[in-house]
Design goal:
By secondary structure, the chain is of the alpha/beta class. The protein folds into two domains: 132 residues, FAD/NAD(P)-binding domain, CATH 3.50.50; 200 residues, 3-Layer(bba) Sandwich (FAD/NAD(P)-binding domain). 32% of the residues lie in helices and 25% in strands. The chain contains eleven helices and 28 strands. The strands form nine sheets. Strands 5-2-1-9-22-21 form a six-stranded mixed beta sheet. The radius of gyration is 22 Å and the shape is globular.
């Protein structure tokens, strides 16, 4: 390819993949533009803690401009991408059209509802900061409204919370929500009977945490049960309504809050790219589009198989793919061939409440307090900015020492899914 003196690179998305791609391209001879609908980067592994009132929303976000402002060859613009003209090599936004020589798609994923009737309309997903705040509002509002209800059956319906999906997010949020309800909220609402408060975790498979070794799934199952979480395996949801969740075997559960953590799918991209059923785009081993070698697809949007299995839709995969795509762009700009991407799996982990976690690292399984300390350290290190690390550490310490959640606030949310409006 014949490149201009300063090839133009556009990165769409300032998540893990997009940000790591931009960092790799810093201080190079490339003109880099990062586009995102938000002006902040979100640390998604701790998003569930915002919904569970453990930490403040601003503790897990960091301004993109602050991250990139030291890099003179990188610009950031907050804008909504409306389309991509692959033939003309242009990105269209609500305010302008930007030409590119290389394009990195790092737009992330949305919740996958698997065609379940009513799930998209009535279940609470947990993929954005706004959704986490809306879910926190919903949980706290159920307790506020329950104080005015005299019928115990109706109160139990209001104070029952269902989590659909027994993967890492579902397991982590189940534990965090159970601790919130049976700890701070039980003390905040002494007029309510704790026996009427219930957290139930539903999983369609025959065990939790299918991506982990079976022994770790069993540990998580027993630990959550000990925390008061009811777990139903082989429970396939067929419909979600405003007042219930229904299952394929004909049973149902009356409740007002269904949290959906069952799966993710690639976020729709307005470009002429072949999209698979799960919303992902199949890419070459180099992360390039098969028909457009100047286009790189990374993170949750990219479908790539390695050793016969698709790469998992995880943050570490996204960061490594963003870095790899940037390296390949530099190679192309220098007239070299791109190299295939290989994911270096350093392990996976999940926390299950106070003093308990699971970790599968370098082929070894860890449980309990050692895994919990490891989880705390890795996630604290992963946050961007000393301020964010300090604030999260303070919130964690306050919760651990005093069994309190300092962020039990009902505030305005950009997500309208909350049952009542906040005035």
């Amino acid at each position: 390819m014949s490149m201009p003196d300063h090839p133009r690179v556009i990165i769409i998305g300032a998540g893990f993949a997009g940000l790591w791609a931009a960092r790799r391209l810093a201080h190079t001879q490339l003109d880099v533009l990062v586009l995102d609908r938000n002006n902040y980067h979100t640390f998604f592994p701790l998003l569930y803690q915002v919904a569970a009132a453990e930490i403040e929303p601003e503790d897990i976000v960091y301004p993109v401009r602050s991250i990139l402002r030291r890099h003179k060859n990188i610009r950031f613009l907050m804008n909504e991408v409306t389309g991509i003209d692959l033939a003309a090599k242009q990105v269209k936004t609500t305010d302008a059209v930007f030409p590119y020589d290389f394009l990195v798609l790092a737009i992330g994923s949305n919740s996958h509802f698997f065609g379940v009737k009513g799930a998209a309309e009535h279940a609470f997903p947990l993929k954005t900061l706004g959704q986490a705040i809306a879910l926190r509002n919903q949980i706290l509002l159920r307790f506020e409204r329950a104080l005015y209800v005299s019928d115990p059956v109706r109160r139990k319906q209001m104070l029952t919370f269902a989590i659909v999906g027994g993967g890492p997010t579902g397991v982590e949020f189940s534990g965090a929500l159970s601790e919130l309800i049976r700890g701070p909220l039980a003390k905040d609402y002494p007029a309510l009977d704790p026996a009427e408060m219930q957290v139930t975790l539903f999983e369609a498979a025959d065990r939790l945490l299918a991506a982990f070794p079976e022994s770790l799934g069993r540990y998580a199952f027993k630990r959550l049960q000990k925390m008061g979480v009811e777990i139903r395996l082989r429970a396939q949801v067929s419909q979600v309504t405003p007042e219930s969740v229904q299952f394929s075997d004909g049973t149902s559960l009356a409740l007002e809050t269904v949290i959906w953590t069952a799966g993710v799918q690639g976020r729709p991209v307005n470009a002429e790219l072949p999209v698979l059923r799960n919303g992902q785009v199949k890419v070459l081993p180099t992360l390039q589009s098969p028909d457009h070698p100047e286009v790189y697809i990374t993170g949750d949007l990219a479908y790539l198989e390695e050793a016969g299995f698709p790469e998992p839709m995880l943050g570490p995969v996204a960061t490594q793919q963003g870095d790899s795509a940037a390296r390949n762009i530099l190679r192309q700009a220098n007239g070299q061939a791109p190299r295939p991407f290989h994911y270096h799996n350093n392990g996976t982990m999940a926390t299950i409440g106070r003093n308990a976690a699971i970790a599968h690292i370098w082929g070894h399984a860890f449980t309990g307090f050692p895994a919990w300390i490891l989880w705390l350290g890795i996630h604290l290190y992963g946050l961007i900015g000393f301020r964010n690390r300090l604030l999260v550490l303070i919130d964690w310490a306050w919760d651990y020492l005093f069994y309190e959640r300092a962020v039990r606030l009902i505030v305005s949310s950009p997500d309208s899914r909350t049952k009542e409006s906040i005035s």
